[in-house]
Design a protein that fits this description.
This protein has a single domain, classed as Glutaredoxin, CATH 3.40.30. 48% of the residues lie in helices and 13% in strands. It is α+β, with helices and mostly antiparallel strands. A five-stranded mixed β-sheet has the order 1-5-4-2-3.
Length: 126
Amino acid sequence: MTGSISQPRHVAHPPPLRPVLLFDGECAFCRRWVDRWRETAGDGLDLESVQTAADRFPEIPPVEFARAVQLIDTDGRVFSAAEAIIRARAMATHHTWLRTAYERLPGFAPAAEAVYRFVARHRLLG
């Protein structure tokens, strides 16, 4: 049994070289975290603001970009919210224990998504 919340969506034209994590470039909280990730991600992951990249992925509704970060893998799969963060971290660092817990540990995925929603709702306060 998988811990994943839902089946991923797909885009018709995925990034050809590296997965891309799309974040809200107008959010100071998001930009701070992305700045920290840039050092860690190296060549394993691209980080790009929704404001510059959303038009390349019309399959993702604007409301989804407003709700959560989006990770687009090179095979076209799209992951959102906590799952996107956890998968992006595994891609960037090659440390997969969080992804394994998300996928296999009962209760982990719903808890991770709940924490993500809480932080997302309060990100503009900080």
